[in-house]
Amino acid sequence: MSIIQIIVVIGLVAFVIFGLWLLFRIRTFQDGNDKEHVKKLREWIKRNPKRAEELGYTFKEKTKTIDSY
């Protein structure tokens, strides 16, 4: 193998390792913020019901009725 081929192989391996590391970091970051994101979205929908309806977001408060038990 020539020096250029060795450098290219090392670069490709480093690129793959970096991609896997980045994928892992993105997944762990998303998992941690799901509940917080949903909470903020619900609060925004409550504050801006008309805009939320225009965008297609629907959030209905759960009401405790006899039928829901």
Give a written overview of the molecule.
Keywords: Membrane, Transmembrane, Transmembrane helix. The chain crosses the membrane at residues 6-24. This protein has 69 residues and is mostly helical. The protein has one domain. The protein is 75% helix and 0% strand. The protein contains two helices and no strands. The longest helix is centred in the middle third of the chain and has 45 residues, at 3-47. The model has no long low-confidence stretch (mean pLDDT 82).
Produce a short descriptive summary.
This protein is an all-alpha fold. The chain contains 2 helices and no strands.
- The tally of strands reads 0
Helix content: over 70%
Sheet bearing the most strands, described? none
Number of helices: 2
Element-level helix/strand string = HH
Strand content: under 5%
Number of domains: 1
Mean pLDDT: 82
Structural class: mainly alpha
* Shape, principal axes of CA atoms: rod-shaped
Rg over CA atoms: 24 Å
Low-pLDDT parts are none
Distance between the termini: 72 Å
Keywords: Membrane, Transmembrane, Transmembrane helix
Transmembrane segments: 6-24
What topology does this entry show?
Layout: H1 3-47, H2 49-55
Keywords: Membrane, Transmembrane, Transmembrane helix
Transmembrane segments: 6-24
